[in-house]
Amino acid sequence: MAVLALHSTTAPDKARAVAHPVSPRLSIETLYVSHGPAVLRRARQLLGDEAEAQEVLHDVFTSLIQDPGQFAGMSSAMTFLYRMTTNAALGRLRRRRTHARLLAANYAGREEPTAPSTETLVELRAWLASLPEELAQVAVYYHMDELTQEELAAVLGCSRQWVGKLLQQLQQRERRRQGT
């Protein structure tokens, strides 16, 4: 069980417990049980979609499990979770809006895109499997998920310039694959 230690450092070698309305140490499981319904309500309120609200709930607590140090104890746990939930929900709304705008711009006046043939999918999967892992990730995030280079850099944990170089490598490999 992950434990969220609520403390701050006043000197490089001294840590002192921060007064907290619940307790000096909270388990993430306890936070999930006690504040999960409020997080879900907030996400549902902002998103208007139960499935997406559930995803935000899980994203918020998964983030805490992965990095419990992000809660510095400067506010109550509920205030912190409320802010995390709001930011996660707003991010989803932005992506939803961007996706709708891109669809409208790219497919205005066109027929609905059709699913690729089974043969095309098999070929695409084989090509992705032949790529180094980093290039395969870039291909999926950039072409399928339509992430920007900045978003890709954040996801991959690298610079935007490196993403540009990876995209160039991917383009060169695609040209070689097509024989052009």
Could you name the key traits of this structure?
disordered N terminus, single chain, Rna Polymerase Sigma Factor, Chain: A, 4 strands, 7 helices, 2 domains, two-stranded antiparallel ribbon, 8% strand, elongated
CATH C-level category of the largest domain: Mainly Alpha
Q: How would you describe the oligomerization state of the chains in this entry?
A: single chain
Low-confidence stretches: 1-24
CATH topology term of the largest domain: Rna Polymerase Sigma Factor, Chain: A
Largest sheet: 2 strands, antiparallel
Q: Provide the number of structural domains.
A: 2
Number of helices: 7
CATH superfamily of the largest domain: RNA polymerase sigma factor, region 2, helix turn helix motif
Explain what the structure shows.
The structure is a single chain. The chain is mostly helical. It contains seven helices and four strands; from the N terminus they run ββββααααααα. The protein has helices at 28-47, 50-66, 77-107, 118-130, 133-144, 149-156, 160-178; strands at residues 3-5, 7-11, 14-17, 25-27. The strands form two sheets. Strands 1-4 form a two-stranded antiparallel ribbon. It has a two-stranded antiparallel sheet with strand order 2-3. Helix 1 (28-47) runs antiparallel to helix 2 and helix 2 packs across helix 3. The protein is elongated. 14% of the residues are buried.
